[in-house]
């Protein structure tokens, strides 16, 4: 039991660390301790995306992804009850930003459509997640058109769709939960952090993406290890 608990904690920590890139920064509401508890207004997201320190893609558009992040409760397969699933709304820049995304079955969702893709880790564990099935969010059906992986990152436990389509479904039209962007020069992180956090229009906090996910993993891994020790002692 003790070894299993340590292995589970280590696997969880590794998955979260792999979710972050050293070239990316994550922008959340000041004081927010997670993506779910954060909120970045549409105006603030546009100001951040237009910053000259943001790297540009091959099409000349900024590599910045304002993401909708919400929790949906879905029934599990093979057992009674349901569990929470993270739903992430992204845009085309978000797909270009996350270069490690690979569709393992089906295809990528079409922008502006009622289509979603499901991470490979949760696809076999939840109902209506097979390619061709319909997932309902707030009674609105979304067609599952593909499964994806992201090199073992925690994103593989999420459902992805078009942000602009998902926002009214979850009544989040006013803004996003987080903005992720790639820096032109990662060495200028400290200066960019100071500038964005000092802008009174934004009200945000800035962290390297890898540091953010590593911090997110600490509380959960500590809990898992503690439970393992407790059960082992008993």
Topology:
Layout: H1 2-18, E1 24-29, E2 40-41, H2 42-49, E3 64-75, E4 82-90, H3 92-97, E5 102-106, E6 115-119, E7 134-137, E8 140-149, E9 158-162, H4 163-169, E10 175-176, E11 178-182, H5 189-198, E12 204-208, H6 209-233
Parallel strand pairs: 4-9, 6-8
Antiparallel strand pairs: 1-11, 1-12, 2-10, 3-4, 3-11, 5-8, 6-9, 7-8
Summarize the structure.
The protein has 6 helices and 12 strands. The protein has helices at 2-18, 42-49, 92-97, 163-169, 189-198, 209-233; strands at residues 24-29, 40-41, 64-75, 82-90, 102-106, 115-119, 134-137, 140-149, 158-162, 175-176, 178-182, 204-208.
What report would you give on this structure?
With 234 residues, this protein is an alpha+beta fold. The protein is 31% helix and 30% strand. The protein contains 6 helices and 12 strands. Strands 1, 3, 4, 5, 6, 7, 8, 9, 11 and 12 form a 10-stranded mixed β-sheet that branches. α1 runs antiparallel to α6 (209-233).
């Amino acid at each position: 039991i003790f070894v299993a608990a340590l292995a589970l904690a280590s696997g969880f920590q590794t998955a979260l660390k792999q979710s972050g890139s050293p070239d990316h920064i994550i922008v959340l509401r000041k004081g927010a301790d997670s993506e779910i508890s954060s909120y970045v207004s549409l105006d603030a997201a546009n100001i951040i995306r237009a910053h000259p320190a943001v790297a540009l893609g091959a099409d000349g558009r900024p590599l910045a992804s304002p993401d909708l992040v919400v929790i949906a409760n879905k029934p599990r397969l093979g057992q009674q009850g349901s569990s929470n699933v993270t739903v992430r709304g992204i845009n085309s820049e978000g797909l270009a930003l996350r270069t490690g995304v690979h569709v393992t079955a089906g295809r990528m969702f079409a922008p502006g459509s009622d289509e979603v893709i499901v991470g490979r880790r949760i696809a076999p564990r939840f109902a209506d997640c097979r390619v061709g099935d319909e997932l309902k969010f707030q009674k609105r059906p979304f067609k599952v058109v593909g499964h994806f992986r992201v090199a073992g990152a925690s994103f593989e436990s999420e459902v992805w769709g078009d942000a602009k389509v998902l926002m009214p479904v979850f009544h989040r039209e006013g803004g996003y939960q987080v903005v992720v962007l790639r820096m032109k020069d990662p060495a200028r992180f400290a200066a960019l952090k100071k500038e964005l956090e000092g802008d009174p229009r934004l009200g945000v906090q800035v962290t390297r993406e890898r540091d953010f996910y590593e911090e997110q993993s600490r509380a959960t891994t500590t809990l898992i290890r503690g439970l393992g020790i407790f059960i082992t002692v008993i």
